[in-house]
Design goal:
about 160 residues
């Protein structure tokens, strides 16, 4: 076995506690390379594969989310277009209904005016006929009452009653 004292003879200088022991140095390199090989061939590929899977999942999820956002925006634009068209149709139908209502009101008003005029004409004609009949009837009665009254005042028959 070599010691620090014997290592000083290998190196022509005295490094003190920094003088390496060749067996420990070789063993250290061997363990380092075995650990490096194990990490490089076994552990690191698994870590790399896991990281890649996570990145793919993240990027895939992001891509799917972007696709869903684009699809949602497209559906929203289509919905808004349909809604605008429906509002336009509703406004058109409303204006048509107002126009038809105005036409119906005007027609009803004209019909009402015509009915009122017909009722007024019929009423006026009826009143005129009744007035004329009442005048004829009263004229006949007025003559008789006038004679009767005149007879009472005068005290003797007047007009047609004299005979």
């Amino acid at each position: 076995m070599t010691t620090l004292a014997s290592n000083s003879t290998i190196f022509n200088m005295d490094l003190g506690p920094l003088n390496p022991v060749w067996a420990e140095l070789i063993l250290g390199f061997a363990v380092f390379f075995l650990t490096f090989f194990f990490l490089a061939k076994v552990i690191l590929p698994k870590i790399k594969r896991t990281i890649e899977e996570r990145e793919d999942a993240t990027e895939g999820a992001t891509g799917r989310a972007d696709d869903l956002r684009a699809e949602a925006a497209e559906i929203r634009a289509q919905y808004e277009a349909e809604l605008a068209e429906a509002r336009h149709d509703a406004a058109r139908i409303r204006s048509k209904a107002v126009e038809e209502g105005s036409t119906a009101i005007a027609a009803a008003r004209a019909e009402g005016q015509a009915e009122r005029d017909a009722i007024l004409v019929a009423g006026t004609a009826k009143i005129t006929a009744e007035r004329e009949a009442a005048e004829r009837e009263l004229n006949a009665d007025v003559d008789a009452w006038a004679r009767a009254l005149a007879s009472r005042i005068v005290g003797e028959p007047v007009g047609a009653d004299r005979a």
